[in-house]
Amino acid sequence: MITLSASESLIIARISATDLGAHQRAEIIALCTAAYEEDFTAMFDMLPGSSHVLARLNGQLVSHAAWVTRWLQPEGLPVLRTAFVEAVATAPEHQGKGFASAVLRELATHITSYDLGALSPSEAAFYERLGWELWRGPLGIRTEHGLKPTPGEEAMILRLPQTPVLDLDRAMSAEWRVGELW
């Protein structure tokens, strides 16, 4: 739950990467770099066609999440158009205040036309509180040479209005991509 003083204003908005200006892109990269303590300079190259949810507290960017379209395939089902969530981040000085939860709730309202929501969690318990479910079955990446198992990786899913019946204990695969596979 977010508690704001009378002088504070939190605004959460969705924006496409193509509509972000250079300053906004730099803000997002700086926020994610600080939150993860790793270089996010190549983020927009790695996430072409991404959509972003931004939370601003009194005009300052405090939290962010993005999604890209990916194609996940649970065993026994056709390929599902998936909103794959990336770069969920909150400025270190604002963590633990509910901003990322608010951003993810807002994000969920924008992905309802997809078959599935998915992400690779850094902290599964955080996402479970928001309705995400840990995929228990084996994961793999589809390549031109066949399926490459990815043991040690984790994925979580968010059921959406069009999500088919899923067996979370079966295998699931995603298409290969540059950078992080999951």
Helices, by number, come to: 4
Q: Please give the oligomerization state of what you see.
A: single chain
**Portion in beta strands:** 25-35%
Share in helix: 10-25%
For the residues shown, what is the average pLDDT? 96
* Overall geometric form: globular
Extract low-pLDDT stretches.
Answer: none
Q: How is the biggest beta sheet arranged?
A: 10 strands, mixed
Strand pairing plus helix content: what structural class? alpha+beta
- Rg over CA atoms: 17 Å
Measure the end-to-end span: 29 Å
> H/E element string?
EHHEEEHEHEEEEE
- Total beta strand runs: 10
Give an account of the 3D structure.
The protein has 182 residues and is of the alpha+beta class. Helix content is 20%, strand content 35%. It is built from four helices and ten strands. Strands 1, 2, 3, 4, 5, 6, 7, 8, 9 and 10 form a ten-stranded mixed sheet that branches. The longest helix has 15 residues, at 22-36. It starts with 9 loop residues before the first strand and ends in a 7-residue tail after the last strand. The mean pLDDT is 96.
Task: Itemize the secondary structure elements and their pairings.
Elements lengths: L9 E7 L5 H15 L6 H4 L4 E7 L2 E15 L5 E11 L8 H12 L5 E4 L4 H5 L4 E2 L4 E5 L2 E4 L6 E4 L12 E4 L7
Parallel strand pairs: 4-5, 7-10
Antiparallel strand pairs: 1-2, 2-3, 3-4, 3-10, 5-9, 6-9, 7-8
Provide the descriptors you would attach to this structure in a database record.
alpha+beta, ten-stranded mixed beta sheet, 182 residues
Summarize the structure.
The protein is α+β, with helices and mostly antiparallel strands and 182 residues long.
